[in-house]
Amino acid sequence: MTEESRNLTLEEVNYQNLQLEQEIQQRQEVENSLGKSKTQLKEQTQQLLQTLEELKQ
Predict the structure, then answer these.
(1) Phi, psi for residue 49 in degrees, rounded to 5
(2) How far apart are CA 8 and CA 2, in angstroms?
(3) Sign of the CA dihedral 2, 8, 14, 19?
(4) What is the DSSP letter of 2?
(5) DSSP calls for the chain
(6) Could you give the number of structural domains in the chain?
(7) Residues 6+ apart with CB under 8 A from 1
(8) Has this prediction a pTM greater than 0.85?
(9) What's the pLDDT tens digit per position in 1-57?
């Protein structure tokens, strides 16, 4: 392997690593967003159950 082709290979690997890091970051953002949505849904469900109990009385 020549020096030039090795450098090119390193550039390709670095580029792929960058892409993977960006993809991981995007997935983490989605997971965080889903976690927040899940928490909000739990809170809303509790509020609805409480309101339902109040209406039954």
Answers:
(1) -65, -40
(2) 10
(3) negative
(4) -
(5) --HHHHHHHHHHHHHHHHHHHHHHHHHHHHHHHHHHHHHHHHHHHHHHHHHHHHHH-
(6) 1
(7) 9
(8) no
(9) 788 888 889 999 999 999 999 999 999 999 999 999 999 999 999 999 999 999 999
Structure-block tokens of residue 16: 């792929």
Q: Domain of 32?
A: 1-57
For 3, which DSSP code? H
Q: Please state, in angstroms and rounded to a whole number, the distance separating the CA atoms of residues 56 and 54.
A: 5
Alpha-carbon span 1 to 7, nearest angstrom: 10
Task: Give the pair of three-digit tokens for residue 52.
Answer: 């339902």
Q: Which residue has tokens 């889903």?
A: 34
Q: What is the DSSP letter of 1?
A: -
